[in-house]
Amino acid sequence: MATPALEPDVKPAKTKAAGRQALHYRFILATYRIFAIAALYAVLIGVIAYAFVMGFYAVNASWAAPVILTATDEKSLDFREKLITSQQSIEDLKVDAAKMDSGLKEMRSHRDSLLALEPEIASAITSERAHDRIDAPALSALDRQKLADDAQTKQVLAQLDAMQSDIQKDLASGLITRADAASQMAAINQTATSYTDSRIAEVLLTDTVLDKTTIGATTLEALERQAELRAEAAQLDVAIQVAEKELTEDNRQIARLHDAIVTARQSPYYLSATGQNLLNYAFVPYDNQASAATGSPIYDCYLNMILCRKVGVVVARFPGEEQILHPIFKTQIRGFLIQMDLQHEESAKSKTVFLGAKPLLF
Amino acid sequence: MAPLLMWLIMVLCLVISLGKYLFGLILQLAHPSTKIRKDYTYEPTVSVLMPCYNEGKTVYETIESISKSNYPNGKFEIIAQDDCSADDSYQWMLKAQRDFANISIRVGRNEANCGKARTVCNALQHSNAEIIISIDSDCIFHPNAIRELTASFSEPRVGSVGGRVGVRNPNQSIITAIQTIVYYAAFELYKIPENWTRSVCCISGCLFAIRRELLLAIEPAIRARHWFGVPVNQGEDRFLTHQTLLHGYGTYINNDALCWTTVPTTLSVLFKQQLRWRRSIVRDFFFTLRSLPVHVFRLHPNTVLTLVLIPLGAIVALLVIVNSLVSDPLAWAGPMPLVTALAIAAVLSWWIKKHSVHETIAHPLAFGAYIAWAIASSLFLTPLALCTMDSADWGTRAKPLEEVPVGNSRA
Question: What architecture is domain A89-244?
Answer without folding.
Answer: Orthogonal Bundle (1.10)
